[in-house]
Design goal:
Layout: H1 5-19, H2 28-41, H3 43-50, H4 56-69, H5 79-87, H6 93-96, H7 102-116, H8 120-131, H9 134-147, H10 152-157, H11 159-184, H12 189-207
Helix pairs in contact: 1-12, 2-5, 2-9, 3-4, 3-7, 3-8, 4-11, 8-11, 8-12
The structure holds fe (ii) ion.
Length: about 210
C-alpha cells in the first residue's frame, strides 16, 4: 500500500469506525467507566511517547498536548475533572465511578510499557493513532452521556464538550505536524503506521464492546 500522512490517519479512522462506531454504544455506564479511566490516565501515554522522542520540535508538540490535557495551567480545568463534573449530573454517577475491571487497568499498564520501549517513529505514530479518532470518540461519548440520562443540551454546553470540540482539532494538527517533521527527518512511514495501528487496537480493546 502507498502510504502518505493523510491516508495513515484515514485508514486508522476507518478501522475505528468499522470496529467501534458502527456498533454504537450498548452500555452507557460501561463506556463511561472505561473512558473516564482513560481520560484520567492518558497523559501517561504522552509521557511514555515523549521519553522516546529525540527531536526537540516533536518533544514540544507532545508536551503541548499533555499540557492541554492537564488543564493548560489551571488544575480545575484538567480534562478528566471536567468529564467527572459532567458525569456527576447522571443518576448513574455512582455506578460509573465504581472501580474499573482489573483487566482494563492491566491492558493500560502493559500498553504504557510497550509504548515506552517503541522506536521514536512508532511512538509518534501511536500518539497520532490515539488522536485520529478523537471526533468519533467525542460523538460516542455524547451518545453514552445521553444514555445515562444527561440531556443533549447539558452535554453540548458542558465545559468538557466546548473545550474538546476546539481542542481535538489542534491535537490532530499537532500529530500531523509531528508526522511532517518525522518525514522530513527521513523516517519510515510504515513504522508510523504500525504505531498508529497499535493505538487503534488498544482503543478497540478498551472501548470497542461497551
Ligand atoms: Fe482531553
Amino acid at each position: 500500500m502507498l502510504l502518505s500522512i493523510e491516508n495513515i490517519e484515514d485508514t486508522l479512522r476507518s478501522k475505528f469506525g468499522k470496529q467501534v462506531v458502527e456498533h454504537g454504544i450498548k452500555d452507557g455506564v460501561k463506556f463511561l467507566q472505561r473512558w473516564s479511566y482513560l481520560s484520567s490516565q492518558v497523559t501517561r501515554f504522552h509521557g511514555a511517547a515523549l521519553a522516546r522522542i529525540q527531536i526537540p520540535d516533536i518533544q514540544y508538540l507532545l508536551a503541548e498536548i499533555a499540557y492541554g490535557e492537564c488543564g493548560s495551567g489551571n488544575k480545575d480545568k484538567i480534562h478528566s475533572k471536567l468529564l467527572a463534573n459532567l458525569i456527576h449530573k447522571s443518576h448513574f454517577a455512582c455506578f460509573i465511578n465504581q472501580g474499573l475491571d482489573t483487566s482494563f487497568v492491566q491492558l493500560f499498564e502493559e500498553t504504557v510499557i510497550e509504548l515506552s520501549q517503541m522506536s521514536q517513529d512508532e511512538a509518534i505514530g501511536f500518539i497520532v493513532g490515539l488522536e485520529a479518532p478523537a471526533y468519533q470518540i467525542l460523538q460516542l461519548l455524547k451518545q453514552a452521556l445521553v444514555i445515562v440520562g444527561i440531556s443533549e443540551m447539558d452535554v453540548m454546553m458542558s465545559e468538557y464538550f466546548v473545550i474538546h470540540d476546539a481542542v481535538e482539532k489542534e491535537h490532530q494538527e499537532s500529530g500531523h505536524e509531528a508526522m511532517e517533521i518525522i518525514m522530513n527527518s527521513g523516517f519510515d512511514l510504515s513504522k508510523i503506521h504500525k504505531g498508529g495501528d497499535l493505538a487503534i487496537n488498544f482503543l478497540i480493546k478498551m472501548i470497542g464492546d461497551a
